[in-house]
Structure formats: C-alpha cells, structure tokens
Amino acid sequence: MTVIIPARNEIYLQRTIEDVLANSTADTEIIAVCDGYWPDPPINDHPRVNIIHHSEARGQRQSINEAARIAHGKYLMKLDAHCAVAPGFDSALIAPYENGELTEADTTIPRMYNLDVKSWQPKYIDDFNEALKHGKVHDYMYIGFNEKNELRTLYYDATDAKLNYRLHQNPKELDEIMSCMGCSFFLSKERYWQQGGADESHGSWGQQAVEVALKAWLSGGRLMVNKRTWFAHWFRASDGGFPYPIGGREIARAREYSKELWTGNKWPGQVRKLNWLVDKFNPPGWETILEQDKIDELSRIFYRHIHLQRREPSWRGVRVVKTPNDLMLYAEVIQTNKPRWIIEAGTKFGGSALFFQDMLDIAGGGQVITIDKYPVEKVKDPRILYIEDSSTNKAVVARLRETVGSDPVMVVLDSDHSRVHVKWELKYYGDFVTPGQYLVVEDCYDKDAQKAGPGEAVDWYLSVDKRFEQTNLDRRYIVGFCRGGWLRRK
After folding, report:
1. Nearest 10 degrees: CA dihedral of 63, 64, 65, 71?
2. pTM value?
3. From 60's CA, which of 166, 271, 435, 465 has a CA 20 to 30 Å away?
4. Average pLDDT of 295-322?
5. Which of residues 165 and 196 earns the better pLDDT score?
6. What is the CATH number of domain 296-489?
C-alpha cells in the first residue's frame, strides 16, 4: 500500500513518517508532498519514503492526486502530517479486502483517537470508555448542517450524547458509518480513480470528509470503520490553528460548492441519491432535505402539467401564468401585509395584475403597477397603471420612485428570466421594497427542477444585499413557480 501525506508548514511531518515506518508490517511505501515549503526538521532519507516538493503551494487535493498518480500500492491511505498509527495498521487495513470481508467498492476509516503530541500516543488509549467519555475517540460521525447551515461532518455527541454512546458500544469490528473526518481514509487505488480522485473543483482545502464519505456511499459502496486498528490525529486548532493562511472566502467557496454538489445530486459518479443515505442513517437536522427529491419531482409534474400543457388558471376570464398554489400564497401575503403598491415586472396577458389588484381592493385598497416591454393583454383595467417599457429602463425606475414615494411596496419580478436581467431588476427594485414586504422572484427553477437564471440572480443578490432574507414561504404549498424566490425585507 501507499501512504500519502500532504503537508504544508507541518512541524510533525518527520515524526509522522517515522511512526508509519516503525508500525508498518506490510509492503508499504510513503509519499510525502511538501506543498510550498521545505520541512524543518528535514525528512530523513529512507528507501520507502518518496518526497514531492513544490516551491509554491498548490493545495491538499492537488497534492493527494499528484501522489496517487505515482503510487505503487494497490491500496492508498491518506494521512495528515500530524498523526500516529497503530502497530500493524497497514496489514489490519488490507486484510478485510483480501479475505473478502470488504469489497473494493468500500472505503475504510481506522478508529480515530485524539493524539497527545508530547507522548505521541492516543489520549486514553488504554481505556476506551474514558476516551469516549472525554470525546477523544471518533468511530461514528454523521453528515449534517452546522449553525451556519453548511454541510459538514459532525459529531453525534454534540447533538445527542446518549446516541453517540450507544453507537460506540456496537461490538462490530467492521461497521458502517455515515461519515468521517478527512484526516485519514483508505481504499483501493483503482476505486480512488473510479471516483475521480480528489475533486479539485472544491479548491485547495476544505470539505474533504464530506467528499470522501459521499463518494463512498453514493458510488454504490460503503464507508466502514475498522476497529481492529487505529490512528491518532492532532487537533491543532486548540494549539494555535493552521500554520498557513486560509482565506475565509476560499473556505466558504469550498463549502458552498460542496453543498450545491451533494444536496443537488450533481456528482456524475453517483448511482444513489443523497436521500437514500439520509434515509439509511436518519441523522439529525435533515427533516427538510429529506423531502427535496419529492418536492423536485412534484415541481416537474406541476410545471409540465400546468405550464407546458397550457393548463394555467384564469382570473375573471384572463389567463394567469401561475399555479393555483402561487395565487393562494399571493392572496394570503397581500391580505396579511397590505402593501399600498404592488410593482409587477412582466405583464404578459394581464391576469396576474388583475388578480393582484382585486386582492388589494379586498385588503383595503392599493394599486398595481405592471411593466412589460411587449405585453399581450387585451383589456386594460382602469384601476391598474400599465407601463409599456423595459423594467430596467432608468427612466421607468425614476418614474416609479416618484409615484410610490415612501408607501409600503411589494415587488414581483416575472419578466425576462435571464440571469443578468434579473440581477439588474433586483438591484433597482430591491430599493422599492419596504420593511416587512416581499420581493418575489418567479421561475428560480426550470422545468427540470434545476436552478435557472433567476435563481442564480437571487443567490448573488442575497450575498450583496443584507437587507433581505430568503424565506421558506414557498414550502407552504410545496410547489409553485416562485420556489426559492420569496425574499423578505427585514
């Protein structure tokens, strides 16, 4: 097997290598990647140790892939550069694959302890219950959402100490686990490349644990803990943090990419959907995501049945390009929030403007202003102000500002659905929406329930305009053309 150790400014790289060599009992080589630095102390020369050096750092995933390309081993083990391993760790990891207990589709994690760097021993190695009690052993982890709603590997003991204890009392020496930390994993080299290697689209660092776990499960294999052996990892965050700068934006981008990839079931190597794995392990915090596939499927059915087959509802004989669910939600919001003005970009047949105006009248009064460069409405209602122009014309925007003043305003964007156009509309019309009112962006998802131009524009807008928050109001009736587009002014 080949042990791959990516390293950047690591003070314990030599000690990690020495420990691997001292405890190896199989035909094992080491490839250490010195990513942007020369280690101090230097790496001692050894026939089973190969060094790759880069004068400029490339990243952890890039380093792992580079080492895997030249690895001689049938099996690969990734190991952080501040870890100790058990005697005979390599033989213990290889054996279940060779004797048929595990298949080549499986990925393995050795039992993980916390490392005491002074003694270079796992903490509480001689007393498993004490290690468990103090949170220093980690056989079972799950994939969930942290307080920032990021997709992460999490510890059960942080959410349910009793469940964590019960899981760790499982006597199985080889057991299925939902997730792991990214500091060590083991699989065949062939399987590693079948899964595409380390996905460098994440960037140089971050989310490796989620990637390893979900590739193992969603590709048709399993993620297993092998309790017959262990490794111990130094959690350096408590001792000064990382020895190199990690930009917040870089980490955020990796986590954003990861969440979009896996919750959207967009990884091309998967033969199972994420919901399959969630159903299998039933981890905390997934109640909403569990329903996502069902919502997507219902959305596709509704879109085809209502819009593509021209079965949209009508209001007082005028066609409305919306689902009945949308109309009911609009009616409830208008009657609750009572805006003085509703600005609609995208008149089309005029049915929605007519509906909005009637709802305003029922709610106590107000006026609809509807804008369209190419409207096709046949009858103009005298209560409604119609503007035949582009919604992004600055003269139109100025006219609207003069008209509505400081009155309560709700905005509905349903005109040109290209990403750039909607971004300009959001920039202009977000300023009109008053606190407590909604800025509704229609058609954030297309007929295949994939994020479309308006949805991409919404993601951008929420990242730059902190006055608005995305709500889950669209989930009230599960499906509709406004999914993901109900933004509320704080």
Report:
1. 110
2. 0.63
3. 271
4. 84
5. 196
6. 3.40.50.150
